[in-house]
Amino acid sequence: MGISLRSRWVFLPLVLALGAVSLYFLRLSIFHEAQPVPENPAPPKKKGPIYKDSHREIAPPLPEYFPLAAKANSPADLPPIPSWNKPPAEHVPESTRLYIGFTRFWPLLQQVVVSYITAGWPPEDIYVVENTGTMDANKRGLLTIQNPFYLDYHRLTKVFGVNVITTSSLQTFAQLQNLYLSEAINNNLTYYFWSHMDVAVHSHEDKEDFKSLYMRAVDVIRETQQADYLLDKETGKKGEWGVQFFAYDWLTMVNVKTFADLGGWDTMVGYYGTDCDMYSRLSMNEYHQPIQDAGMIYDVTNSLEDLEILYRRRPKNDKETRDTSDGKAGSDNSTILSPSSAYLDSTEPDTINSTHFHDLKATLEQIQQDKRDDKFRNSWQLRQNGGEGEPYYYDPDGFEKALQMTIEVGTKINEEKWGHRGCNIREAGVKEGDQWRVEHDGTFKRRKMKRRWF
After folding, report:
1. Within a 10 A sphere around the Cβ of 72, how many other Cβ atoms?
2. Contact at 8 Å (CB) between 156 and 128?
3. How far apart are alpha carbons 425 and 341 in whole angstroms?
4. Which residues pair with 273 in a beta bridge?
5. Exposed/middle/buried for 195, CB within 10 Å: 0-12, 13-18, 19+?
6. Helices 274-284 and 173-186: angle between axes, nearest 10 degrees
7. What is the distance between the alpha carbons of residues 77 and 71, in angstroms, rounded to a whole number?
8. Structure confidence by residue, pLDDT tens digits, 187-204
9. What angle do the packed helices 396-418 and 274-284 form, to 10 degrees?
10. What beta strand segments (E) does 351-425 contain?
11. 291: nearest Cα among 307, 279, 308, 306
12. Strand runs (DSSP E) across 335-405, as ranges?
């Protein structure tokens, strides 16, 4: 059957539209063919990641903060411990094991070790826990001093005479604490000491009835072992202790049984907040946490310019020459100590509570104040950013970013665990057994988490 005339008119607009589109593309093709080809055509864009600015200024080389130790081969090559701080010739009957954890910035580790030794702590009782994640690289001397994870294994063990325990992988703060606890259990210890690495210590030379920092710590051990320690005379009930604090936990004595009974540290809360959790649980379970005083303990961000000053020697015939450093960190103490091959011949022992002692005290107080004034109090952790190409290398900026993210996650876990934000967990009214069972309290309305890595 044929198509009617009216039906033919229906197809006419469609035919005209197709013709217009064909004409447009034909003219467009002719236009492009007429265009000249550029002499240097831009290369096609490659698919792949967009990289960040890789420019990084490498920090200047760290100075040598203990030249005399750099030349030494054994403890005999170092100055003697100040006579008033020397530990007993025969070790005290009590165990005095001290753990010091290390991850980054060798100068502060060296300083804390030397300060404990010169305050009377026997080197053989000090255990540095190398928590760098670099396996045996430091023991084999494969890392350079600009690597954040560098430490001088030879100097620690052969010159200072302390012990080094190397973790199999990088540990969080909470995991490191459980390592101390595990070591103590495996060595049948009933208590142990641990210290932060970013502190410096010295004895109370300006107090009557002088005792070294070490012997004051021993006195605390003996106090806890008395039959009437924490005995309530009215009820006859004897209390139990969990920790003995020396300047909060910058130096801490731990009761092994107490911590084991509570299950140790919560490793889900890796860094900040894990101390709040641990010490709050001690309190909830009625374990005492006495505050003790063994000596001066400074929270520091820098090293003394020359650690020889901790051995308290002075130039001969210069009994009371004052330090001209104005108490500022990094000042020149060469008027007091001058490292040389004839060091011991050119110097003599200082006296207890001398002018030099007060100069040292003022310097450490200033270093501590510098840290308090620093908006990022742990900026010392960022002073080394080298080591690329060395074994177990980890990008320093990436490490810091990952660390801050891990810290925040742990903090959030602790908040969810107790339904409370902040370290004052007990004030929220929670008790042992309430973990993960309570709703958020009002503290969640007051602030939001800060992402420090952006």
Report:
1. 16
2. yes
3. 56
4. none
5. buried
6. 50
7. 8
8. 999 999 999 999 999 999
9. 30
10. none
11. 279
12. 347-349
Task: Provide the 10 A C-beta neighbour count for residue 377.
Answer: 14
Please name the residue that has the structure tokens 């909470």: 174
CA distance 313 to 357: 10
Which residue is associated with the tokens 């009820």?
235
The tens-digit pLDDT sequence of the chain (454 residues) is 555 555 555 566 666 666 666 666 666 565 555 556 566 766 777 788 888 887 777 778 889 999 999 999 999 999 999 999 999 999 999 999 999 999 999 999 999 999 999 999 999 999 999 999 999 999 999 999 999 999 999 999 999 999 999 999 999 999 999 999 999 999 999 999 999 999 999 999 999 999 999 999 999 999 999 999 999 989 999 999 999 999 999 999 999 999 999 999 999 999 999 999 999 999 999 999 999 999 999 999 999 999 999 999 999 876 554 433 333 333 344 444 334 456 888 899 999 999 999 999 999 999 999 989 877 666 766 778 889 999 999 998 899 999 999 999 999 999 999 999 999 999 899 999 999 999 999 989 865 545 443 3
Residue 129 in contact with residue 172, Cβ under 8 Å?
no
Strand 243-246 with 291-292, pairing = parallel
CA atoms within 13 A on the CB side of 347: 24
**Residues 188-192: contacts with CB under 8 Å, at least 24 apart:** 189/95, 189/97, 189/256, 190/255, 190/256, 190/257, 191/95, 191/221, 191/224, 191/253, 191/254, 191/255, 191/256, 192/95, 192/97, 192/98, 192/99, 192/253, 192/254, 192/256
| CA-closest candidate to residue 127, choices 85, 69, 186 | 186
Q: How many residues does the chain have?
A: 454
Helix ranges restricted to H, 170-273 = 173-186, 213-224, 256-261
pTM of the model: 0.84
Amino acid at 206: D
**Rounded (5°) CA angle 414-417-418:** 95
Which two three-digit tokens encode residue 106? 């060798």
